[in-house]
Amino acid sequence: MKTRKVAEITIGVLYAIGAIHQAFFVLPDSTEFYVAMADQAWLAPAATFVEEFLVPNSVAVTILVAAFEATLAIAILLRGAMVRPALIAGGVFSIVGALTGSPAETVGYALLAGIHFWLASIHTSADPRTDHAA
After folding, report:
1. Opening angle at CA 73, ends 42 and 7, nearest 5
2. Is residue 107 a contact partner of residue 114, using CB atoms and an 8 Å limit?
3. Which pTM was predicted?
C-alpha cells in the first residue's frame, strides 16, 4: 500500500534528520543536553538512569545515537530487506524515549513506537511484485 510506504519513508527521513541533529547540534553540548533530559524526565528511575549513565558518557552516547539513527535511516530508505527490522529497532528506541522524556514526550514517543510496530507488522517485502500488504 502506498500509504504504508510513504509512512515508512517519512520515518526514514526523520531518522536522517535526527542523525544530523545529533551530530551537529547535540554533540557540541551533549552534557547539557543529557542534564536537561534528566531534569525533565518525570519517571524517577529514568532521571536517575540519565544522570548516572548518560550524562557521564554523553559524547559517546550522542555518537552512538547519531550512528544508530543514520543506520535506521539508511535501512528504511533503501527499501530492502532491513526495513522491517529497522522499524522494530526504531520502535524500541521510541520506547526508551518515552521512558526518559517529559510527560508530553512520553505520549509522543509512545505513539511513535506504536506506529513503528504497526508498520513493521504489515511490512511484507521490498519486492513490489510480492508486496501485497494492506
Report:
1. 80
2. no
3. 0.87
